[in-house]
Amino acid sequence: MHHRGFGLLVTVCIAATMMAGCTATPTPTTTPKSTSSPTPAQTPTSTADTAAQRQPVRVAAASGTISDWDEAGVHAVGEVGPAVGAAASGTTSAMIDAPVVASGGVTVLTTDVDVKAGSYTFSAQVQPLTESLAAGAVTAAIGDVNVASPALPVSHWTEVTGSITVSSASKDGQLKIALTTPARRLLIDDVSLTDGTGKDVVKNGSFEKVSDTELVDNSSLIMSAQYATLAVGAPAGSVHWTATRPDGTVTGEGTVQASGSLTAIPLVGVPQGYYTVTVKDAKDRSATTSIGVVDTPAYDVPLDPRFGTTIHLKEEGSRGQSRYAGLLGVGTVRSDVLWRLNELTRGTYTWDKRYESEFTRAAANGVLLSAIVNYGNAIYGNDKVPAGATEIAAYGEYAGAVASHYKPASIEIFNEFNQERFNMNACGVTADCYLPLVKAVSKNVRAVGRKIDLLAGATANYPSSWFERLWSLGGLSYVDGMSFHPYESNSHPETVAALIEDAHKVSAKYNGGDPLPVWITETGTSSKTGGRTLPSQGQFLLKIESSELAGGAVSTMWYDLKNTTSNAADHEGNFGLYEYTPRANTSALAPKPSGFDQALLIASINGRAVAETADAGSGVVAQSFGDEDSLVSVVWTSNGKSATATLPSQDPVEVVAWDGTTTVVQPADGIVSVKVSGVPVIVRPAAADRDPATTTVQKR
Questions:
Q1: pLDDT digits (tens, 9 = 90+) for 644-653
Q2: How many CA atoms, within 13 angstroms, populate the side-chain half-sphere of residue 340?
Q3: What is the pLDDT of residue 697?
Q4: Helix, strand, coil % in the chain, rounded to nearest 5
Q5: 460: three-class secondary structure by DSSP
Q6: Are the beta carbons of 513 and 573 closer than 8 angstroms?
Q7: Beta bridge partners of 141
Q8: At 141, which helix (H) or strand (E)?
Q9: pLDDT of 450
Q10: Three-state SS for 522?
């Protein structure tokens, strides 16, 4: 079987460049709250304290609005907003999540200040939660005059301070805080700008005043176990909470006193798992939602571009799907880019605002785009599929425009051309009819001159003879990979490996023995009423995605990110990893068990490459990742019966169920023996990974 190895590079994008126009020399100091004391210097040092280690804290990003401040938009940076818990003082700070930052930096927070000509002292407390940052990573400015941060050690509050001189000619009464480098989860607190008399002109510099909150105000309900905290927007008084496992076990409960703004409920004693959380405030307002708590080294599940999901931008409530994908660790979103919506007049492209918004947001979150150049356009004739030389040429030109404008990581040529549901034209659904589209798209996308993986097929199921015909016609010379949607493997997910093996074999036959990379761009199952249960949908995800990657696919993409209806009986509308809309008195979408299992799988693999297939016992399927001394395997039995799986390990392992519960198994003579059944488990080292596979992301 062909295995395509994949190793995630841990990329730390650090730029120490200051913003232009700085006329002051900052004097960095450390706050007494810090447990580390970097030596003060007259100018910022060029690197952060490499000895500093990440120390988890109980803090939650919230969805409310920080009063008196303007937050960077979601198209400029991943997330900016309040965070409750672990503040430098009080209970609330500002949190910035910026996996990607444009080369010129990005302003993340702005506030109006009443300044006059003269000298002011700026001060703020700053703490990176994920990794240390180099000097100059954070700047504060009024006009062209700024103060730049010293090196910022991870998990320590560091004071950023310096003088800002406002000239009599200055008309800029805004204090702007900016990032010059990517930073995942940066806290800022206690911002002040004081004049010579000691008067502070910054309003709400401690970020304690927050508005527009829900009772459960977390911006994400997928949480790292070491940081897991509920952000609660409740009136002053008692707030009671419970966390309950799917089997009815109450794992955590308690009562806290709400402040009247944001209040933190640290989920101490609530280990990894899928829970139903109920919160009730002093006025009897309540919220009940699912949450997922995942063992992962940092605040966020690391992004893994091998995992993708389909997003739909035509449905109501479609905004922010790229962000939700990234919060699961899903590093690629796949989306239609419908021709008919973007070329309303022949030869003129007017990009639909839904695509403009969501694709820009994906880029800001470090999530790659896989674009489907889709369907026909009535202004050329057939609104279902390009037919005829003129239409096909225009379709190819449109694909080139998509490549140039959106700069996707990959482009698929049409969607399920091989079935009449999406392809109604006189020519038919054959590979012969498809090849002209491949040629037209390839010609125009290649002319753009940037690396974009061009994918042929996107077929319903895996039609081996269809692909063989396409390759025999010379189709291989126009593309970089092939894609298909192997729904025929849904009853026995492990059988997808045979389809991938055949795809490699067939393409190699026409490519000098070199197989074409395989992308699985749709895989999934519905949790509709009467079909798979919600838990079994998640269990299926663990099986099929691990089988596709272990079987040699470059990518596995779940169909789709969120439910597209609130009707639980609708088949097509219940493939999602998240529910359709947020629940009552809750800010964020609730993850389904499948969403939790998606995050659990990505966090457990943590960037490991596919391992060689090993025999784990008769009837046992073991899809493995990593080296033998750090192996992670998804394990089940193909016949659904109980069996014992044997896996190599010199050290104890954790056996993780679909709901996140764990048991520890000790090795004997370099082997661990694990009881398994048709329900998959993840077997991973009991010693947790110290670092996430990815943090910040370089712009492609």
A1: 999 999 999 9
A2: 14
A3: 54
A4: 20, 30, 50
A5: strand
A6: no
A7: 146, 176
A8: strand 138-142
A9: 83
A10: strand
